[in-house]
UniProtKB/TrEMBL annotation:
Annotated ranges, domain Luciferase-like: 1-295
Composition bias, Polar residues: 1-17
Region Disordered: start-end pairs: 1-20
Name of the molecule in the record: LLM class flavin-dependent oxidoreductase
Family listed: To bacterial alkanal monooxygenase alpha and beta chains.
Entry's Gene Ontology molecular function annotations: oxidoreductase activity, acting on paired donors, with incorporation or reduction of molecular oxygen
Any one of the GO CC terms: cytosol
Coiled coil (residue ranges): none
Length: 325
């Protein structure tokens, strides 16, 4: 089985954004040492507690400080941008870091309505045009446009992936012969049915091409289940704070999370969010990952871990790698 890392550059309440971004770089270096397959960074805009709004910039920084781990945008929110520029940026990265660059494509806005308007006057129209945008992007990545090239042209093109949580994204990936990433950690949909739709609709662009599935999960691992539950409390309470428009101070400490009062409605949301996470000791997390791999017919599991203390996050990835890889 392959394991990978998805990083949002979360900012803890005792951190600056600069510290969070440098922690992301340290996590990528650890992932490389532990034989994780790839390290992807998300794109979010004006969301309190998340430091990365431009993953392509961070990948240049991280690429210069790593050697082998694959690096990717997870995802470029394509309706905000011209496909040509997205191709140029990733060709630049692929030229600097040969055969290491992935290009994850998504359609979400990545922020509030106000931020969406600040980024793009035609976001909704572009969401409807997503199939055309994907086709245009692929034409630049594969040099199929006779009039213009997205230079510099790397020796090995970036590998495109479609990210999503819906049947629509699965079918779009399948139709275009793209590899597919299903975001289990943020979906209430029937994931296995969606990934099956992808497999059924897959049409290879090249004869030797086969469908590939990554499932992205949220997981926190510690030496004991009790410790993992305690560490996870910070992330879960922070999610509830963000739901209320709070959370500007970043991920709360474990003690602050324990002291945070919850209404009955929030307690229900807490339980629901917790069900979307894998929390436990190494043996339990391994068993859940194996089950997820089988259920989704996935060749790879991508893990997102959010903790208050950087050492708890690094330790979680280390324990999982030692148990699974």
């Amino acid at each position: 089985m392959k394991l990978s890392i998805l990083d949002q550059s979360p900012i803890s309440s005792n951190q600056t954004a600069e510290e969070a971004l440098n922690e992301s770089m340290e996590l990528a270096q650890l992932g490389e040492r532990l034989s994780y397959e790839r390290f992807w960074m998300t794109e979010h805009h004006d969301l309190p507690g998340l430091a990365c709004s431009a993953p392509e910039i961070m990948l240049g920084y991280i690429g210069a400080k790593t050697n082998t781990i694959r690096l990717g945008t997870g995802a470029v929110l394509l309706p905000h941008y011209k496909p040509y520029k997205v191709a140029e940026v990733h060709h630049q990265l692929a030229t600097l870091f040969p055969d290491r660059i992935d290009l994850g494509v998504g359609r979400a806005p990545g922020g509030s309505a106000e931020v969406t308007n600040a980024l793009n006057d035609n976001f909704l129209q572009n969401v409807y045009k997503m199939p055309d945008l994907v086709e245009e992007l692929l034409s630049y990545l594969h040099g199929r446009d006779p009039k213009v090239s997205a230079s510099p042209l790397p020796n090995v093109s970036p590998t495109p992936w479609m990210l999503g949580t819906s049947e629509k994204s699965a079918l779009l990936a399948g139709k275009n012969g793209l590899s597919y990433v299903f975001g289990q950690f943020m979906s209430d949909e029937s994931g296995p049915a969606i990934t099956q739709k992808y497999l059924d609709s897959f049409t290879p662009r090249k004869r030797e091409q086969t469908p590939q599935i990554i499932v992205t999960i949220s997981a926190i691992c510690a030496e004991t289940t009790e410790r993992a539950e305690e560490i996870a409390l910070s992330s879960l309470i922070w999610q509830l704070q963000r739901d209320k428009g709070e959370g500007e101070q970043g991920i709360p400490s474990i003690q602050a999370a324990k002291d945070y009062p919850l209404t009955n409605k929030e307690k229900e949301r807490y339980k629901d969010r917790k069900q979307h996470m894998i929390i436990g000791d190494p043996q339990y997390v391994k068993a859940q990952i194996k089950e997820m791999q089988t259920t989704y017919q996935a060749g790879e599991i991508m893990i997102m871990t959010t903790t208050y203390a950087p050492q708890d996050r690094l330790r979680s990835y280390e324990l999982i790698a030692r148990e699974v890889l």
